[in-house]
Amino acid sequence: MAVSSLPRAPVIKSATTYAVRRGLFEAGQILLGLVILVWVLLPIYHMVMLSLTPINEAFGGRFWPDNPTLDNFRTVFTQNHFFLERFWLQLANSVVVALATMALVLVVATLASFAIGRLKMPGGHVISNLALLTYLIPMAFLAIPFYRIMAQYGILNTRSALVLAMSTFAIPYAIWVLRQYSENVPFELDEAAKVDGASPWQILWLVYVPLLRPALIAIGTYALLLAWNEYLYAFLLLSTDTQHTIPLTMGYFLVTDDSPWPLLMATAIVYALPPAALYYAVRKYMVTGLTAGATKS
Amino acid sequence: MAVSVAPGRAVEAAPPRRVRWSGETAWGVAFVTPYVVLFAALVVWPVAYGLWLGASPGAFAILFADPIYLESAWNTVVFLAFAVNLKLFLALLLSGYLAQARPWIRWLSVLFLLPWAVPSIPTIFSFRWMLNSEWGMLNGLLWELFGIEGPWWLVDPQLAFGSVIFVHVWKYLPFWTLILLAGRMAIPTDLYEAATIDGASPLQKFLFVTWPQLKNLYVTSTLLSTIWSLGDFNSVYLLTGGGPAEKTHVLATLGIRYAFNLHQIDVGVACVMTALPFLVPLVVILIRRLGGRVQ
């Protein structure tokens, strides 16, 4: 863009004019790159910096602590603070909820999308659109009735309630992505398998699942991260601290005004690293999965 | 729900007869049953129950008499207008920048995903402390570098709400940039080559090649982002908690406040239901746009 803002060279564009333009363009590009870098990294840098700050130095507003320390992480890992008394249990809860959500979403969505897309179920189209409709309900809007329904089902304050809540919102998206993605899998494969006498169950396992592996990885990760990251539903559905997940552990730091922010940030880093690492590990699939539908129009 | 089927489809020639298994439909029913059961128990029933809860006229009377509600409804409109459009416009520009095939821009685009890859709670809390006007890093830096007394970021209602919008944009910009980047990558390169031969400037290439190809995706993205931003509870609740003095609530957080802090469940439901006249048309348009692609 820097190019177009330059005045037009009068008659002959000399080699130096080109060099100047080129240089300005490059400088603009690099400058923009630096701005993006600062924009992205500043809050993350702040989180790391604060986690290395001794608790009593947190009120300095510094850019780097005077005496950086790893003590905060030690406190987190040894559960040596009122807010972190059940850190490991709550971390385990987060893992269990995330994995259970992933498993439920993968099984239910794979079966449903196979029935709708490949078996051409009568009424499959309606189910597909209803799923899309669910995908478009803002999660926070359903929270209040959902809370009451979980009480009616008698599973309030259990991790299953959170798993069900997260699956409710992840499955429609999963079905949608699988339906988009499976359109590229030729029907001839199914037909050939059928002629060879394969049952639908065998086609599902031997044709559909292997060919949809990239999409399955994408939605599995999506479900896992959705459950791992959830705050609102965890806050409403889980009330005793033995059921809490880590987002709640962090949320409770804010009940007092003089919270130990360095400890909160150390907890936050321990909590944020696994999903970020997972995201980067499967980044290639995530992009494919997320854009499978979006870019088709 | 048949809206997404183009009218012409139904009269198309019948597809060639497929080989059918005996009991293929039975298999289909069996496979789809788990989803239908979950859908009935966890979507249909809560939605119906919610509509029933929100059907009390008394709840709406309380709501409309509450100045906090009116302020929150206005906040929601401002939030959607600014956060969504700012985010998508920046995403449109940045996707062009990141689409350049240079090694260091590749690396930059990998780093650029961080706000999206890192869970939102840690980063929102990080912002919250960074913006603390007395002890935060931002005002500390302003003071040390420029000798400026930094503003009261989260104490002044307007600045607090601006911060909410900023944090929302920070968090979701990578996602939409990625979507628009994928859209740009799908544009055939020969269109650009032809434009170059015709002597088109970069701006002309954008206006006459990129934008017409990307317009549809951009509009769909804007609509989707509007719906999701309407339900963005975290950016508000975890940054400001609706404060100071309940002045930065949006409908999503105010509904929760009524239902769980003030124990008025029906008012809470009524609060989010007032978004329905806006939400339902959006959903209908989106189902047409998205659902039409899968049949």
Features:
heterodimer; A: 297 residues; MetI-like fold; 2 domains; B: mainly alpha; globular
Q: Provide the CATH superfamily of the largest domain in chain A.
A: MetI-like
Query: How many DSSP E strands of chain A?
Result: 0
Overall number of strands of chain B = 0
Oligomer: heterodimer
> What percentage of amino acids of chain A are in beta strands?
under 5%
Count structural domains of chain B: 2
Stretches with pLDDT under 50, minimum 5 residues of chain A: 1-6
Roughly how many Å is the radius of gyration of chain B?
24 Å
By CATH reckoning, the class of the largest domain in chain A would read Mainly Alpha
Low-confidence stretches of chain B: 1-14
Rounded average pLDDT of chain B: 85
Shape of chain B: globular
Number of helical stretches of at least 4 residues of chain A: 13
Would you give the CATH topology of the largest domain in chain B? MetI-like fold
Secondary-structure class of chain A:
mainly alpha
